[in-house]
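[Meeting: bench + compute handoff]

Bench side (C.D.) handed over the final construct sequence. Compute side (W.E.) agreed to return the predicted structure before the next meeting so the bench team could plan truncations. Sequence as handed over:
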Amino acid sequence: MSNEGAKDKITGKAKEAMGKMTGDRRKETEGKADQAKSKAKDAMDGARDRADGIKDSLSNDKD
């Protein structure tokens, strides 16, 4: 998990919990959105890492 993704996840959890405690559905939804953003960033990081690995393995085959 990237630092930015971890920050979004923690912030999202805090916002969601605060929204639930205060009955603020908007804040709760913002928290869930932040957590979803974190998952998307992690997925993109994983895809980028896999693509880099494939690129490296293909370039090593030519040697």
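W.E. noted at the follow-up: The chain has a mean pLDDT of 90. C.D. will use this when planning the next construct.
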